[in-house]
Amino acid sequence: MEKNVQSTEQMDSLAHPVNEKTMPESIQGYSQQQRDLLVARLRAGEHKAAAELVDLYYEQIYLFLRRLGHSRQVGEDLTQESFLRAWNHIGQLRDGRALNSWLYRIAGNASRLYWRRHAGSSPASIEGIDVADDSETGADRVGRNEELERLKKTVGRLSMKLRQVIVLHYMQHLTIAEAAEAVGIREGTFKSRLNRALKILRKHLT
Prior knowledge:
This protein is mainly α. It has ten helices and no strands. It has helices spanning about 1-20, 25-30, 30-45, 45-65, 70-90, 100-115, 140-155, 160-170, 175-185, 185-205.
């Protein structure tokens, strides 16, 4: 039991610093009012707002797709496709609170369609994708990088459904509610999948 708790804490400590690094500072500083205004501008068809949306979310969506096992080139293609779909279906977006989950759902759907069209393809490794934290130096950075790569290697062994819930919640830093909406399932179902994924990770990390 103690080992299981330690494994979960290890994953929390490894994953969340990466989330903060991958979120552009500009989106961290956006208030709810600013997000609502951005959505209103998008719904009005303002192209500058569309460019702003890409600037704010491109890195997040790209890393999300890479962490789902897509290669660099495919990740870039699917990221561009996701933003194009978002623009073409902007009327579906309700308000700024739904912005995160809405974009991730579009990207997740693009990913699923890709795997259906390429059923024989193997997911790419997610190791080595993230940039190291510049605040860490020497042995601390080496140790954390080794642990992070071990975690990502283990995540790569999960089924796509279980990998997605781990990536959304622990690596992209979405709340349970946001992540469940992004996947298109109830929160209870999402938590169940998350628990199943954690059990598998604990087994391999202990």
